[in-house]
Amino acid sequence: MKNKLVILVGIILVMLVVLPACNSKVAGPLPRSMKGYELYSWQEGGQWHFTLITGTNRNKTITEVVTGETKEGEDGWVNIHATGVEAIKAVLSRVPAKEFVSWSGRGTVGPPAEGEELTIRLELPPTDIINQIKEHAEQLGLDFNVF
After folding, report:
1. Going by C-beta distance under 8 Å and a sequence separation of 6 or more, which residues neighbour residue 124?
2. What residues pair up with 60 in beta bridges, in sequence order?
3. Cys-Cys link to 97, which of 1, 74, 120, 141 (CB 3.0-4.6 A)?
4. Among candidates 58, 55, 39, 41, which has minimal Cα distance to 120?
5. Would you say 122 and 53 are in contact if contact means Cβ atoms under 8 Å apart?
6. How far apart are CA 87 and CA 83, in angstroms?
7. How far is CA 132 from CA 5, 21, 86, 100, in A?
8. C-alpha angle with apex 32: 26 to 38, nearest 5 degrees?
9. For the residues of 74-86, what is the DSSP string, one character each?
10. Coil/strand/helix, residue 60
11. What is the secondary structure of 104-116 as a DSSP string?
12. Which among 122, 121, 123, 144 has a CA at the least distance from the CA of 133?
């Protein structure tokens, strides 16, 4: 009886680990972007936040950079928010090799949309964090630039 109980508990534990993994989406590679990707960062609530967004010729609004809404459209538009260094490394791992990624403390970001008040200041993290992310990007074969 005791052995059956141990086996039952073991099966339940395995199911608790395996079943959620079966339901999770496996994030595939991101599309190539004619203008590369832009990376933005800011500190909020004691954590570093990052947004990787499709590069364009237009200024992004601060709202679209910091809202945290992850979008991966079929049209190739990418706007992915990540919290923490390991999370942004995972996102960068999805960017195709040789893709251009530019990271700026300010970049070309416009003001919030009319009526919105955002007090978040885009900035680069400390040098050790920049170096960790840059080294990871270079290992991935990305054309990674920090401004």
Report:
1. 41, 103, 104, 105, 130, 146
2. 109
3. 141
4. 41
5. no
6. 6
7. 47, 28, 10, 18
8. 90
9. TTS-EEEEEESHH
10. strand
11. -SS-SEEPPPTT-
12. 144
85: its two tokens: 């260094």
d(CA 119, CA 62): 10
- The reported pLDDT for the residue numbered 99 is 98
Tokens of 63: 């709202």
> In the chain, where does DSSP find H-type helix?
2-23, 62-66, 85-92, 127-139
Instruction: Note the pTM of the prediction, 2 decimals.
Output: 0.78
Cα dihedral 102/87/93/147 (nearest 10): 10
Which residue type occupies 70? Answer: T
The reported pLDDT for the residue numbered 17 is: 43
Tokens of residue 135, six digits: 């080294």
For residue range 117-143, what is the model confidence (pLDDT) as tens digits? 767 889 999 999 999 999 999 999 999
Phi, psi of 87 (to 5 degrees): -65, -40
The number of CA neighbours under 13 Å toward the Cβ of 67 is: 14
Say yes or no to pLDDT of 49 above 70: yes
β-strand partners of 79 = 53, 71
Q: Phi/psi zone of residue 126: left (φ > 0), alpha (ψ -120 to 50 degrees), beta?
A: beta
